[in-house]
Amino acid sequence: MATVDGWEEGGVFAWVSNTLGPRWGFAAISFGYLQIAIGFIPMLYFVLGALSYILKWPALNEDPITKTIAALIILWALALTQFGGTKYTARIAKVGFFAGILLPAFILIALAAIYLHSGAPVAIEMDSKTFFPDFSKVGTLVVFVAFILSYMGVEASATHVNEMSNPGRDYPLAMLLLMVAAICLSSVGGLSIAMVIPGNEINLSAGVMQTFTVLMSHVAPEIEWTVRVISALLLLGVLAEIASWIVGPSRGMYVTAQKNLLPAAFAKMNKNGVPVTLVISQLVITSIALIILTNTGGGNNMSFLIALALTVVIYLCAYFMLFIGYIVLVLKHPDLKRTFNIPGGKGVKLVVAIVGLLTSIMAFIVSFLPPDNIQGDSTDMYVELLVVSFLVVLALPFILYAVHDRKGKANTGVTLEPINSQNAPKGHFFLHPRARSPHYIVMNDKKH
């Protein structure tokens, strides 16, 4: 869809609008914007878990009120750093990726290998079920939610297909290699934690710190203090990621404001090229959801899991529209010129789209099932909170589209220039695809 002539600009909004209509295009890009708003919450929980460990302040990770206040302070403080412009955002993300994610990941895997080689007790039984879960069990199916979230956002890479010399060969190969690498790395990292910490003892916000503590106390107890250094690196890595995610989705959403699908206030930008109204609106949504989930879900693993599941089901709504839009493209617009085509003709294209749609529907249904570690009365609360939260978020784009008067003129004083590998800001591709802006906002001949 990204390679169809005339559809290169606007990303998901353009693809869905051109196949299903502007209402659905607006909804699709809104869900991408909203899933980031909710996705900040588990990231903030992780930050608080690391900070709690470093400061030896358990209440920061366990007391709902303390947790709420601290998370809101961190969120808005990071936002303030972005209102002055995003000149250094991609560079910060790059440093955060290497120092706060990649380096701790290698240390974790190395320590786990030494731990395993030493013959120390392992918290899980290493057999075929360790690597191939029993998906006949509902509790295991829920793991699929986190797995799906790991691969969400790959559609952002489609905007670069036209830059490949042989898209038909290179793009599928790149996606395959990415998938294999991601599965291998996430599996090794997950096993490193699972073999050290029993499943019923893992704190989802601070599980990585728990693991480092056990590993370091076994491998090199004399330098156990380094766990706090590693925790600080993890903390800085996630803080850098949150900061780099704040403006990108709002710039992606800006295309709807430019086309007068949002009130005029949302099209305003400050002198640094930041769409402040869109950014603040997103953070207000994050703040409201954070307050509700943290204080009604107890601020523990349940709050984390609800935020994670809610992020997934919101994003899946955008995927439903993408797959349905592609089916419409194949059936109704087969003659539109495009650079990349799925080989095999119309039948294969439809099979691929239908399989993708059915997989998304399955993931959507599974996301509402409570995990095994939520039991008793908490099960009903989990489902109720998740369902009500989802319905509220689901309604937002359609209500806004229905009540807003779209008869005004589009904002012609600002143009959007697609970002490609030649003009991308330094460090752009170190940003997670979910958080990248697909275009520059050009105002007064200046790119932002």
TrEMBL record:
It comes from the Bacteria. It catalyses: 4-aminobutanoate(in) + L-glutamate(out) = 4-aminobutanoate(out) + L-glutamate(in). This is Glutamate/gamma-aminobutyrate antiporter. Its main location: membrane. One of its GO terms (molecular function) is antiporter activity. Keywords: Amino-acid transport, Antiport, Cell membrane, Membrane, Transmembrane, Transmembrane helix, Transport. The gene is gadC. It comes from Escherichia coli. It is a multi-pass membrane protein. The keyword Methyltransferase does not apply.
